[in-house]
Amino acid sequence: MKSILKEKNFVLMIIAFVIYMGSCSSQDNSDTDKTASDKELPKEEIKPDKNDVSFLPKPTNGKTWTIQPKVSNEFNYEEGKASNKFYNHWNDRFFNEWTGPGITRYTPSQSSVVGGELAFKANIVDNTILTGCVTSKSKVSYPLYMEVRVKLSASVLSSAVWMLSEDSTEEIDNLEAFGDKSNDYFSKRLHLSHHVFIRDPFKDYQPTGPETWYADGKGTIWSDDYHNYGVLWEDPWHLSYYVDGILVRETLVNEIDPENYTNGAGLTKPMHLIISAAAQSWRENQGVDFLNDPTVTNEEKTVMRVDWIRVYKPE
């Protein structure tokens, strides 16, 4: 009898356990369904508002950072460079007759607008490097924030986004970088700087400290992926640089013009926007042979891609 009772009790325990587990499983499914429906989309699926620059200092007097259409471009032209909309506000060359540094030759045939992107490629012709360059027809002035989304070329050529005054005496470099992955130093750094010049006799000042070569401390190779690069030109004496929405460098007041080339004015002149690729002459002093470097002779490695450029002003 005891044996029978024991067996009955055991069976009842098994049944209770199964019912309990069934109940838990049902609850787990409900929670899982709720989590799946409520969880955020992966970051790559979220398309941020193009006017979202909430990481910037808030403008005063009730103003907001407002995009400037004449000097911004999403490069979304079905006709590519054949679109009149491109040429309404942009030059497919430098804004004056200059063709680039050293053996660089800015050439319209080296730029294209395809798939919603501006792209440059480089070719070697007659001991020169043909590359692309586009510049804004309009000039910009402070206060402004300029940001670009760029995939650097994987070459020893510079991928650059910058601003320059009409008389070429004041320059702000939002981005200058060299994406050749075999160079452990340059591939992991971004040059964030500016220049002030005297043209006759020629003098050139730019800050040269290690802080002008930004590395994120994570070993990021910048040519591996697209990144957002921005510069806030707040007033004649303040420049702040942002990478992927993070403030990474602020230029000190005493670094803007310590040689007094601007006669105490600082960075005040309206500037053209410039997107370019180039064979920078100073790299030759480091032993770079542009005409024979494998990252230049391989056209695919020279391709620089620009998803968009956006300029904001407080309005």
Distinctive features:
315 residues; alpha+beta; eight-stranded antiparallel sheet; disordered N terminus
Report the uncertain regions. Answer: 1-48
Radius of gyration: 28 Å
Structural class: alpha+beta
How many strand units?
19
Please work out how many helical segments DSSP would assign: 4
Distance between the termini: 92 Å
Element order: H for helix, E for strand: HEHEEEEEEEEEEEEEEEEEHHE
Indicate the overall shape. Answer: globular
- The quaternary structure here is single chain
Classify the helix fraction into a percent range: 10-25%
The major pleated sheet works out as: 8 strands, antiparallel
Mean pLDDT: 88
Estimate the strand proportion.
Answer: 35-45%
Topology:
Layout: H1 2-38, E1 65-67, H2 84-89, E2 90-91, E3 104-106, E4 111-114, E5 117-120, E6 123-125, E7 128-131, E8 133-140, E9 144-151, E10 158-165, E11 170-178, E12 190-199, E13 202-205, E14 213-214, E15 227-235, E16 238-243, E17 246-251, E18 271-278, H3 281-284, H4 294-297, E19 304-314
Parallel strand pairs: 3-7
Antiparallel strand pairs: 1-19, 2-8, 4-5, 5-19, 6-7, 8-18, 9-15, 9-19, 10-11, 10-18, 11-12, 12-13, 12-14, 15-16, 16-17
Give an account of the 3D structure:
The chain is an alpha+beta fold and 315 residues long. The protein is built from four helices and 19 strands. The strands form three sheets. Strands 1, 4, 5, 9, 15, 16, 17 and 19 form an eight-stranded antiparallel β-sheet that branches. Strands 2, 8, 10, 11, 12, 13, 14 and 18 form an eight-stranded antiparallel β-sheet that branches. A three-stranded mixed β-sheet has the order 3-7-6, with no helix packed on it. The longest helix has 37 residues, at 2-38. The chain starts with a helix and ends with a strand. Mean pLDDT is 88; it is low at 1-48.
